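Risk register update: the risk that structure generation would not scale has been downgraded. Supporting records follow, first protein first.
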Amino acid sequence: FQTMSTMKCFSRLTLSTLLLRHSVGAWVSPASFTTTRRATMPPLHAATVQETQTAASASASSSGRVKFAKYEGLGNDFILIDNRDQKDPSLTPEQSVKLCDRHFGVGGDGVIFALEPPSTDYDFAMRIYNSDGSEPEMCGNGIRCMAAFLKDLGEDAKTYTIDTLAGPIIPEMNDDGTITVDMGPPELVASKVPTTLEANFEGDSVVEQTLECNGKTWKVNCVSMGNPHAIIFVDDLEKDIDFESDGPALEANTDAFPAKINVEFVQVMAPDHLKMKVWERGAGPTLACGTGACALVVAAIRAGKIPRTKTRVTLPGGDLFIEWKEENKKIYMSGPGTFAFEGMAKVN
């Protein structure tokens, strides 16, 4: 009895250590799921991964368990589910909310599903449920994480065309391990962002427009990267905003932003360097937002804050590099997508 008790304690301690090392802030009960980490065991062969992931997704509803992999892009963390054999997510938004819970689930800013493509024009499809159960059109950090996930599953193409609710997105695997994503051109027309703020710039767009919210007057720039963004430039990120109050107030201002909005507060550090804090629609404060980084570079160029050049964007979780090319109007984002751990989670 003492030997068995000792073994159980050792097993739980090992799992606890693993979770604390590889998912800081995402502690869950050892009984909720099991994990493996690739630092101590090699990745499964693609065929094995595909077989286990497919079996797990097919039986998730009946067995109450689902196979997952955890990835992060500069701390913006996601639970990845392999549904490449089906067109719709294997989990509901409600199940995804439970899975994203950092106390009683795996923990994450959202759940990403790698799905069967809708046509031969695409290699895969991508759907996301935020941690609150809402469904965004796209996620820049998430698309990099999905590209890394596909590579780990055995897909070996250098680029993929992925169908998203924001349209086709094309990530490219770089030799240095980073991922560059062709994010397409930004949408600048106010009604298509969407925002009800009065257009005050060329092309019926919104640049440094006045908005009263949360008892303050803001100068707002509106850009859509398939999902809506409100970009606000400040002199000092630490002194000029009450992040925990201003962020949610602006996000939920449906008079100005009918679909709600992702909010980026931005400080210009140099002509090629911006620093930001983000309050994400449906997720709240996150360590990084890829589409937000793209949107704020566009906003900074249009507002005359910086020249049109490759720009370093510093987020709480690290740096992304963004370039808005003049010749094709497309935005290119480069950054990491990093594996954390994988396991089997309980869903109900």
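Supporting record for the second protein:
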Amino acid sequence: MNKKNIMMLCTAASIFVAWLVIDNEQIEAGKQAQQRSEPLNIPDISQAHAVTTATKKELKTAQASIQIATQLSEAAQHVATQYEDTLKYPPYSQPLSVNDEDRLKPNYFYPVSSVIEGHEQPLSIKLTKYRHVYPEDIAVAVSGPELKQVDLKLLDVDTQQQLASIRLLQGPFEARFKGSKSLPRNVQIVAMAKLDNKDVPLVAQFQYMQPSAKVVSVEQVYARGDNMVIDVRLQVTNPGTYRLRANLFTDSNLPLAHLVSKQKLSKGLQTLTLRAHWSVLRPQVTQMRLAGFTLERMSPSPAEPSMYGTSEIQSYDIIDFSYDSLQQLPYQASAKEKQSLEFLRQLAKSGEL
């Protein structure tokens, strides 16, 4: 508990005790007066009531402070435990499980749905992905009960300017908007679905970007120290600091690791290296697959948002890699990582920022 909370509790307790002492003294005085048959000196009830009200407010404030400190401490303890687990592995090579949907599906578009009264099936609009990069087309599908017609409008989110439109008169209610260099970053599709007795609107917002770089190929895979090294070839059109993410799977498609690499790249053909630490690999697994490439040009300033590239390859097969060729030494967290962990531990103990 911090000093402020302690002082607050002490103040509240002192007021409460003082009130009790005053009240007891007044009662005792009243008894003695009755015994002497003298006039009774009645205490000021309004004053006692004011003291009681002030005491209750102080106690409530103190209790609230204690509760906030406790919640902060518990949250910090939870984060510290999670962070300590991640420090068992290097930040560039973290374990991957089937539950890590944000890493397994980094560009997934979650369908937008609306419940239709009297029907179990909702009305839904779905895109193939959230981020699109030129020259990709924008594929959209609308599904729902008793659909008669769907009108689709492609709009600029910021200006609400209509960029294109499509009318679908029969199922399947699927359409494709042509990709264009002139499309703004923030875009939305407004679908007006015509059912038996009413029109229902649905809105799907997404992003459309100009190309900044693309993954061209995987050059080679080899052992170096305690890492399996993967050299990835990129074609960069917009220089800057790039972050490449990819997922490593077994040949039976079980997730193994999430790999990350960051480097400043100039224009032209460049190589970015991914590393898989021995601790995320399995001794018996020699056949693996690298997939889920996500290439990001990181934001250099608040005025310039991050951009995403594309990949010419969907996956790359790693064949006959020797696990025994790696040095198997435990990962040692950096001084900065240890400092961050210690801060979280202290926060968990004190409950103070």
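Residues 1-40 have pLDDT under 50 and may be disordered. On this basis the risk owner (M.S.) recommends closing the item.
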